[in-house]
Amino acid sequence: MESSDNLLVKMEKAGVFINNKWLVKDVSLEIEKGKIITLIGPNGSGKTTTAKMALGLYKNISGKVEKFTKKIAYVPQKISIDWTLPIRVFDFMNLTSDLQDQEINEALEITGAKHLLNNDLKSLSGGEFQRVLMARAVAKKPDLLVLDEPVQGVDFTGEIELYELIKKISETLKCGILLISHNLHVVMSKTDHVVCLNGHVCCSGTPISVANNKKYQELFGEDVSKILSIYEHKHDHKHGVDGSVEEN
Amino acid sequence: MFDDFFIRALFVGIGMALVTGPLGCFVVWRRLSFFGDTLAHSALLGITIAYTMEINIALSVFIVSSLVALMLLKLEKTTNLPTDALLGLLAHSSLAVGLVVIGLIATIRFDLMGLLFGDILAVNVNDIIIVWFGGALILLVLKLIYKPLFASTVNYELAEAEGMKPEKVKAIFTLLLAAIIAISIKMVGLLLITGMLILPAAIARNISSNPKGMVIYSVIAGLMSVLIGLFSSLEINTPSGPSIITASLILFVLSLIKIKRSSQLKS
After folding, report:
1. How far apart are CA B35 and CA B17, in angstroms?
2. Looking at chain A, which residue has its C-alpha nearest residue B266?
3. Is the pLDDT of residue A63 over 50?
4. With contact defined as beta carbons under 8 Å apart, do A100 and A50 qualify?
5. What is the sign, positive or negative, of the torsion defined by CA atoms of A106, A108, A151, A162?
6. Distance from CA of A215 to the nearest CA of B (A)
7. What CATH homologous superfamily does A1-71+142-233 map to?
8. B123 to chain A, minimum CA–CA distance in Å?
9. Cross-strand bridge partners of residue A39
């Protein structure tokens, strides 16, 4: 089977069966360079499982997952760190790579977490930690970026900024992005492909086509699905982390 | 230079502290203190086998400890028992089997106290060579796997997703623990090995804010424990192995002052 040079991950009818239960099955999708794929679906629909399959974190899966890159960055949904470890943001940034101080500073700068560099990791709030996780992923300059609910715990303006950032990452790094949306109804305008999961692929396609898809409407109810907001906004200024207005 | 028994003991002690310092940090970080204990217990079986088959003690202990460690990794995967229960099972049964084997072979009469607490003052030049060469090898391997081992200690899935091999480095680290126990069993004995692994690292945790700093402090704390322990055992005629651990304990108590200070500063 030939694959284009841009292909990063190819999943064919992939599924995970654990403890007599399918976590998710028959997922087929392709992640390509420069493209953003968004996974949506209710709780327990297999979004995280699908992302983990793409990352190769399951040993026994049905179907096939092929990975064509090793430069991967992962922002997990939940991260539990054992606090017997003394670890600062700086050490965490270098966790799986050897970065220059300058690269670390730049990455923290764009996620608005530069002031946290020497803070103890356990002293961070949920939102701050999320920004650090994003910064770490950005600093690695990956080919494949897997984001599992990257904006959870981040305040609303921060959320918009982070979505902008994801868009910017995809444009500048030309990496493939697999994004799990914490919010069903918010799908970024930049998303190329939406996969709606409910234990299997319920429907997939462009954001608009999914929004209009019958199955999607059945899954979430017609009223709810109408408010699928396709993230698109313009702004003429942005806010610093402390809330100050910075002119563009 | 190595003629004096005390100089030999110092060399062995310093060599050990240099290795147990960094290894101990990972033992504390990965919550493996009971695991170290289990390996130390299984060492008794290794020693018995060494006596019966007349092979090198360090080699025999290393083989038995590694087998027990691999058995644990296997049992963790195949049973639903929690790790601490499996550790207890392996620790007590390997200790028991060791004692049964001793009983069966009535011709062996060895000093059980020496085995439990070691005798660092009785080391010979060979022991120094084993500790320094073995120790250097352990540190070299630890340096090679430091990054993936640390990353998977912080977060297993993150490390695996980003191309580290957490399972492989875990197995290698386990072998390193078996190795340090093998080369140090004669010096500090099986009851005190985990003490040498945990106490310096615990002291270091109290006074450090980042992982590299903790490794360095852990080595320094280990070296100080060895020096203070050995010199005081010479001065006041106390058993040397336990004196080293007691010195460590005193340092630990002193390190608590620093915690108290810094938490006062914060509030």
Report:
1. 19
2. A123
3. yes
4. no
5. negative
6. 32
7. P-loop containing nucleotide triphosphate hydrolases (3.40.50.300)
8. 35
9. A180, A195
